[in-house]
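Appendix C reproduces, verbatim, an entry submitted by the partner laboratory led by Prof. M.T., so that reviewers can inspect both the input and the predicted structure.
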Amino acid sequence: MVFNTVLFFAVLAITVIFLYLSYTFKRDADKKKTYTGEYHIELTADFAGESLSIYVNDSLLMNGILPDTVTTLDIDRFADEHVLMMVDNQTDATTPFNLNKKGSKLTVKKVKDEIVFEETPARF
């Protein structure tokens, strides 16, 4: 009889411990991950009058004909890794660029028919 009572309390204690642990681990997994850093993308006037689509990962940032002035885009980091894709809407030519994990300032120029990226560290 005493053995059954001790066994009951042992099973009850183990059940309470497992419920507590599963509750605390689930709560930690539900937290939203935040990222620090920002990307400052600057398109020079070399792209004036061209029809471009600009993507970061699978998110469309801009689609249309660029003006004859410098165009800037500021983006906060939202994932572990990012890729900037510039798509020429007339030829469907895609130019990818892997962005820095800490954020950076990126100047995009057009030299002849090639797109050139110049990246500087996150301090801007």
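The first helix runs from residue 2 to 29. Additional entries are available on request from the coordinating office.
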